[in-house]
């Protein structure tokens, strides 16, 4: 995530940051369905109905399947992105997590606790304290100052005035708005208003932040700023996040893992590197076609065994999380192959052929070091 001992950055996102798979997940979702329409609950149980195309199903039953048999875990400390085109089911899926939309079938647990079995009070607590939502339309109160907007949620919780103003001040500073506490929302840019919305969600100190396309209304530069803010919050605080977007570059920038949705299904769930480097099918391959591979893929994919002990001991040392783009720079600068080193051990070597092979999307052949054109799956 940070520059390694050799000054090799892995682009700041934390490529290679792998949330520990052995720890218990924050959210655990199994076989989740959301069907809109009359007698929706007959659809998940019926092989015949579930096999129909969306159009056939609508014609025969009047139902729309928004989420179709989806299972995944969100691990502590990760930024889990739900990505897909408009209508693919992203918002419905994430709203089901806290039952803002009632699932039709399947189970959801938060920290092992069944969300389906929660009563009204527990659900209120879940939405306020455990999994707070940051919306695209941040719903700020126009007549209140920035500070009071941020403190609003704490006021509802019954926190005393001095304490909530101190806490709100801390959050305002955390999102980079120190000095603007006394302004009203109308005196802020769209990006600054979004930061107030973020500070308000953070003030409740939720275990998970759920973002629903939070930045899609912002202009590109401010949007980039906000993405960096999210990455920073995730990295510095280790706060778990679920982030909806239809924008692939945003997903790649903020996500530790990405669930790519199509027609209510998750067609692939994996790290940006897995999605771009090993697309699960032609749909995903098409989706990631224009991604600059060298900025997402790491030297792990370009590595080959060292030819001899000499090669394994010379050349610049790179961490396994180094992007191919940074490795190309290191190899070009020094004019020799670079070693991929982890905890003092040389895992392999990258050279210009192996790095260019990854950029070109070629598959490594069994004969060490060679590449061949990738054939469509
Ligand atoms: N209340 C509803 N009643 C009927 N159908 C719905 C309802 N809400 C959503 N849908 C349908 O469910 C599907 C998934 O919608 P959803 O809003 O979850 O998609 P999305 O990926 O978030 O889209 P967008 O990016 O446009 O917000 C769509 O076909 C949509 O028309």
From TrEMBL:
Domain of life (superkingdom): Bacteria
A molecular-function term among this protein's GO annotations: ATP binding
GO cellular component, one term: membrane
Annotated ABC transporter domain residues: 52-288
Presence of the UniProt keyword NAD in the record: no
Keywords: ATP-binding, CBS domain, Nucleotide-binding, Transport
Pfam families found in the cross-reference section: ABC_tran (PF00005)
Gene Ontology annotations of biological process type: glycine betaine transport; response to osmotic stress
Family: Belongs to the ABC transporter superfamily.
The protein, known as: ATP-binding cassette domain-containing protein
Lineage: Bacteria, Bacillati, Actinomycetota, Actinomycetes, Kitasatosporales
């Amino acid at each position: 995530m940070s520059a390694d001992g050799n000054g090799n950055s892995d682009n700041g996102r934390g490529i290679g940051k792998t949330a520990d798979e052995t720890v218990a997940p924050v959210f655990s979702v199994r076989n989740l369905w959301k069907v809109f329409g009359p007698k929706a609950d007959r659809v998940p149980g019926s092989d015949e109905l579930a096999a129909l195309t969306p159009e056939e199903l609508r014609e025969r039953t009047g139902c729309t399947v928004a989420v179709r048999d989806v299972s995944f875990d969100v691990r502590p400390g990760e930024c889990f992105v739900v990505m897909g085109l408009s209508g693919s089911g992203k918002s419905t899926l994430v709203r089901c997590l806290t039952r803002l939309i009632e699932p039709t079938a399947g189970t959801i647990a938060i920290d092992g606790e069944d969300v389906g079995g929660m009563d009204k009070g527990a659900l209120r607590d879940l939405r306020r304290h455990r999994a707070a939502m940051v919306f695209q339309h941040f719903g700020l109160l126009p007549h209140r100052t920035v500070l009071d907007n941020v403190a609003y949620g704490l006021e509802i919780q019954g926190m005393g005035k001095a304490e909530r103003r101190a806490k709100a001040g801390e959050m305002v500073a955390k999102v980079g708005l120190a000095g603007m506490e006394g302004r009203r929302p109308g005196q802020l840019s769209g990006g600054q208003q979004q930061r107030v919305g973020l500070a308000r969600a953070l003030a409740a100190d939720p275990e998970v932040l759920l973002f629903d396309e939070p930045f899609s209304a912002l202009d590109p530069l401010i949007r980039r700023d906000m993405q960096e803010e999210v990455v920073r919050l995730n990295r510095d605080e280790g706060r778990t996040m679920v982030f909806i977007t239809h924008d692939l570059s945003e997903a790649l920038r903020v996500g530790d893992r990405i669930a790519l949705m199509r027609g209510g299904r998750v067609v692939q769930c994996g790290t940006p590197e897995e999605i771009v480097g090993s697309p699960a099918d032609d749909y995903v391959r098409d989706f990631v076609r224009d991604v600059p591979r060298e900025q997402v893929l790491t030297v792990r994919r370009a590595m080959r065994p060292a030819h001899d002990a000499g090669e394994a001991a010379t050349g610049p040392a790179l961490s396994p999380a180094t992007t191919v783009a940074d490795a190309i720079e290191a190899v070009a600068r020094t004019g020799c192959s670079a070693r991929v080193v982890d905890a003092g051990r040389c895992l392999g070597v990258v050279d210009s052929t192996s790095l260019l092979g990854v950029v070109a999307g070629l598959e490594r052949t069994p004969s060490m070091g060679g590449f061949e054109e990738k054939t469509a799956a």
